[in-house]
Amino acid sequence: MGTSDSHYSLLSLSLIFILLIMLCFKANVVAASALNNNKISGFYVFGDSTVDPGNNNYIKTTFKSNFPPYGRDFPNQVPTGRFTNGMLSTDYIASYTGLKKEVLPPYLDPNLSTQELMTGVSFASAGSGFDPLTPTITNVIPIEKQLEYFKECKRKMEVVVGKERTENHIKKAAFFISAGTNDFVLNYFILPIQRKSFTLLAYQQFLIQHVKQFIQGLLEEGAERIVIAGVPPFGCLPMMITLNSPNTFLQRHCLTNYSSIARDYNQLLQHELHLMQLNLNLINPPPKLYYADIYGPLAGMIQAPQQFGFDEVSSGCCGSGLIEASFLCNKISNVCTDPSKYVFWDSIHPTGRAYYHIFMASLPIIDSIINS
Ligand SMILES: *[C@@H]1O[C@H](CO)[C@@H](O)[C@H](O)[C@H]1NC(C)=O
Ligand SMILES: *[C@@H]1O[C@H](CO)[C@@H](O)[C@H](O)[C@H]1NC(C)=O
């Protein structure tokens, strides 16, 4: 190693050191502000792989990720069925809200205690979507079935703590929904099944109709605080870049045409949520709907990776990074040496590090729910 090399490594060492200090400082701030947060009674999550902690382990589907290298950076390196190397944003949220749990477990885990059910679980299933056809392609848990599971969960709580306490508990719980990407990317763009029956605008409206139906279902079960996440920039997903770039290996950047479809959908979604909220305001006390932006935080990381310590934004860490996800990212895949430098873990899903930044971006919403 020459002198310039050792200077260079000294410099990067100091940089790493400074970064570590900053991270610790940040972690302290987060921990401190969460200390008195006990105003959420429980946290219930619905949707797709972005929030599935391993429900698919318990069903017959090829959409699984309960094998290495998934979970490589999860506590104890367990491949839990989360489609990432580390934790999901919803795990960070659960731990932040002072519910006394470090991660959010999958509802289908047969060993959950009543305490775990009360403080929160995820009903989400990787590969699912708002379009009822989407989970039939992937053979996973439809979103309406996830609502049925929530009703079952409610009955289990009622048996233990009674009907009234369960109702009060649900009123003070936070609900979180994240889906839509599989409907567009898998169902509409890649396969393309629904493209034959719907124009893009009609499909967006069709999906939003289903989002509203699902929210309605939660409201009927007593939910009063519901967060609905938007969709990410589709054109930046490594798989979409791979499938749609003329020169996939040399020129990899986001496809603006696909990302603008995500933006349009998010706009439409926010508009509909706003209209729904106006109606809900007539109820006393009014249930609250919140929109969580995923697009902005991810696009931010992709546009200014250095600011977040990333240096690879257009391919995943697992395998070639161009096409692998789920069973294609497996024990025999190459894995990049430092996933924390990658925005994407596989060709579709963010790394734990990227999920952490998405969580940080959602904090204002989480805080306003806690303080409401
Ligand atoms: C559930 O608990 C039983 C008994 O403690 C154990 O044998 C089993 O492996 C557990 N199952 C899961 C999915 O953790
Ligand atoms: C988006 O642009 C890419 C690359 O120019 C093209 O291959 C693809 O067909 C376009 N897709 C849509 C939906 O416009």
Mean of residue pLDDT? 91
Total helical elements: 12
The global form is globular
Structural class: alpha/beta
CATH architecture identity of the domain at 40-295: 3-Layer(aba) Sandwich
- Uncertain segments: 1-37
Task: Give the spatial strand order of the biggest sheet.
Answer: 2-1-3-4-5
Q: How would you sum up this structure in a few lines?
A:
This protein has 372 residues and is an alpha/beta fold.
Describe what this molecule looks like in 3D.
The chain has a 5-stranded parallel beta sheet, with helices on both faces. The protein has a domain of 256 residues: Rossmann fold (3-Layer(aba) Sandwich), CATH 3.40.50. The N terminus is likely disordered. 45% of the residues are buried. It contains 12 helices and 5 strands. It has 372 residues and is of the alpha/beta class. The termini are far apart. Helices cover 46% and strands 6% of the residues. Bound molecules: 2-acetamido-2-deoxy-beta-D-glucopyranose (2 copies).
Layout of secondary structure:
Elements: H1 3-34, E1 43-47, H2 89-96, H3 114-119, E2 120-122, H4 134-138, H5 143-161, H6 163-171, E3 174-178, H7 181-190, H8 200-220, E4 225-229, H9 238-244, H10 256-280, E5 288-292, H11 295-303, H12 352-370
Parallel strand pairs: 1-2, 1-3, 3-4, 4-5
Helix pairs in contact: 2-12, 5-6, 8-10
The protein binds 2-acetamido-2-deoxy-beta-D-glucopyranose (NAG) (2 copies).
The site of one 2-acetamido-2-deoxy-beta-D-glucopyranose has 3 residues, from loops.
